[in-house]
Sequence to fold (576 residues):
Amino acid sequence: MKKLMLGNEAFARGLYEAGCRVASSYPGTPSTEITEAAAKYEEIYAEWAPNEKVAMETALGASIAGARSFCGMKHVGLNVAADPLFTAAYTGVNGGLVIAVADDPGMHSSQNEQDSRHHAIASKVLMVEPSDSSECKEFTKLAFELSEQFDTPAIVRLCTRVAHSQSIVELCDREEPELKPYEKAPQKYVMMPAYARGRHVFVEERMAKLTEYAETTSLNRTEISESAEFGVITSGAAYQYAKEALGSKASVLKLGMVNPLPVRLIQDFAAKYEKVYIIEELDGIIEQHCRNIGVNNIVGKELFGCIGELSQAIVEEKILGTKKEYAQLIENVPVRPPVMCAGCPHRGLFYCLSKLKVVVSGDIGCYTLGASAPLSAMDWTICMGASVSALHGFNKARGAEAEHKSVAVIGDSTFMHSGITGLVNIAYNDSNSTVIILDNSITGMTGHQQNPTTGKNLKGDPAAAVNLEELCKAVGIRRVRVVDPYSLAETEAVIREELAADEPSVIISRRPCALLKYVKHNPPLKTDIDKCRGCKACMKIGCPAISMRDGKSIIDHTQCVGCGICQELCKFGAIE
Fold:
């Protein structure tokens, strides 16, 4: 049976067919759908973990127990999980351990554009890279086999285009490998120095064996064209661009195993051509490897650079010097910049912060859009959880002047991910800092996933729910306030009071995401044109449901959810 599947969906199918038993992940675009799809298979225990580090440690524990296990994340999530990853390279596995990491060239939904191949190289573990949905499934299955064969975690690297594009996948039956026996082996799994030294020797020996395996594996293949004018070495999504743009003009060495890279296979292929183009997105890792092994008839980053995505058009123009019209929309689609949804509970809070002109330490989530005009209420955003810790550092550096004029904002899911420890630091080190937790009852930005505060698990079943108020008090915060961000007067008053206090405080801005299905909205509002003075006060909140027409405020009833924030701003009673 064949089916059209997303790359992420096909990856999950690979987990199922390979006999994976345990999957633990943290949602992060473009990787989220892998674990969501895996959860639909009853044979796989699937969960959302509080963060990627916990997810990888959970998967490693399941592997040590003898089960085939999985954890998935986006590229910046692998930074969080790097601690267990680097040591898992030493311990190796019992049951196969597969890790999905989805890079985001072009930064469609990310704060940076890092290349996860560096993590595989630095941690000295196997990495493979599929280029379509079919390979997502097959490479995942093979990754489990190689993980067990070479006693290593195996990383499967995706990118946005492979994860979120569709192609045909052949469905197969599930394997049911038996749970491998667990045997106590401290020399293998207890990574204290005396044992870790011996395991480092094993890691280096394993890398040598994997390098030899890379020379003959079917993961790496050559596609020779009799009319080829030059050679191309490529991998992942870039392979698809090269094939479409160059056709029979190029012979291709497609690398499906990207760490470690082969030596003789590349040398022999490059020797056949006067010029070889290295086509890879982001950093020149294949290119540098070629130079290290003495292959110098190559052209790479001097043509393609290391910023953003490649495409068929870019490959054709850079190599052939021609421009062909590839499939595109006939009509120009109006640009729609990212914006908080109509009725978003974060809008009222950010309006108050903007009005009060406070310094705002931002974090990762929907609320990062608070940085955009007209709210413009965010001073920096670094990484998950950094808003809390950075605010502490900012206030310690600038003293009382900053303490009463600065806040951190962080979502409920992000707070559980890595904000708690920052708050512990504030309480422990007596930092006069105000932290605002934006509790919208869901993990919003990645598509409404549950988290430890929502009372439901990945499958939607009832689960223990963290009480944010009690948690904040338990770590040493005495001042904990809860506000409804739909009430601007209440929200502004509480922010003023907590900024004026001379001790750490937490404000919980609580209102469910307007897009949650169970949320009941008020009737849409409308403008009384006769009363409207055209003062544009209602435009200051940046609601996409409000626009100006002929000098008057107009509310789109198809978008408005009746939150009432604009009504509170209108001094002339024109919104009703």
Observations:
- The first helix runs from residue 7 to 17.
- The CA atoms of residues 524 and 557 lie 5 Å apart.
